[in-house]
Design goal:
Radius of gyration: 23 Å
Distance between the termini: 86 Å
Number of helices: 2
Largest sheet: 7 strands, antiparallel
Shape: elongated
Order of helices and strands: HEEEEEEEEEEEEEH
Number of strands: 13
Strand content: over 45%
Structural class: alpha+beta
Helix content: 10-25%
Length: 281
């Protein structure tokens, strides 16, 4: 009972914060955490939760709150909450927390070689406007990296991270759609832990809703002269593939080059037309 109340307090605090929620410490040895809750007047009235080994996981309370973790064919975390179904009372609503942590290792070359690695993150969040001054609707997506002693080993340092969020009625001052590349340098043979966390919460009084998603991809920076000598392996059978809607790293350069060339051609055409018109006068 004490745990349920503490969980309720946590999500209610998240619903009323004026800043994005902080990312919790990474799961010690990797794993999946899903938790869906419904609140009635400040107390948990329904809950579906679990802590699992790395792999697919889900929680669900009909349409109140739903959270899912997929690891194949690509890693994808999603969560949504619908406060409208939880009852129009102060302190009522729905929330979901989804977290996944897994390790990856750089291989190739000589042990200790310094290799530039990129974690490409595609995140999106959305909320409906909250008309309840005491219960905000929030959606946050966080990705953080941690150095680990070995695969499944202990955390030895904190690395970079990125996040996206939506917040109503207040702005969280961070983009709701964030496609970001987290760059770091790793020694060949070393491992990192990628920790992803989603928190969504919606108040019942304003019949709000919230949604968030994360889709990551880890790769050796292709601009590195010896990139072909190194590979990334991901533990526990987790997929590591570029998101279908996101071009491969090398394609970005081609797209930008093509756009630049198209712009130059268009400018030359406009200049030529202006010259012709001036001559005709």
């Amino acid at each position: 009972m004490a745990k349920l109340i503490s969980c309720a307090v946590f999500v209610l605090l998240a619903m009323t914060r004026l800043a994005s929620p902080a990312v919790a410490q990474a799961l010690t040895h990797g794993g999946s955490l899903v938790e869906c809750q419904e609140f009635q007047e400040g107390f948990v009235s329904a809950q579906d939760a679990g802590l699992f080994a790395v792999g697919p996981a889900s929680c669900g309370l009909t349409s109140f709150a739903v959270g899912t973790i997929a690891v194949q064919p690509s890693v994808l975390l999603t969560a949504r909450a619908d406060g409208a179904l939880a009852g129009p009372f102060s302190g009522s609503g729905a929330g979901a927390t989804v977290e996944l942590a897994y390790d990856f290792t750089v291989h190739g070359g000589n042990p200790g070689d310094l290799v530039p690695v990129v974690v490409h993150t595609s995140m999106s969040t959305s909320v409906t406007p909250s008309l309840d001054p005491e219960n905000a609707n929030i959606a946050s997506a966080n990705v953080n990296l941690y150095g680990v002693s070995s695969v499944h080993g202990s955390i030895i340092n904190n690395g970079p991270g990125t996040f996206a969020c939506d917040f109503s009625p207040n702005d969280c001052d961070v983009s709701a759609d964030n496609v970001d590349d987290i760059a770091l340098t790793m020694a060949s043979g070393s491992s990192e832990r990628v920790d992803m966390q989603i928190i969504v919460a919606a108040g019942g009084l304003s019949e709000g809703s919230a949604f968030a998603r994360i889709d990551p991809f880890v790769f050796v920076d292709p601009r590195f002269a010896h990139a072909a000598d190194y590979t990334i392996t991901v533990a526990d059978g987790v997929a590591n593939a570029p998101p279908p809607a996101v071009p491969e790293p090398g394609v970005w350069a081609l797209l930008l080059t093509g756009l630049g060339a198209s712009g130059a051609i268009a400018r030359r055409r406009r200049t030529g037309l202006a010259t012709d018109r001036a001559a005709a006068r």
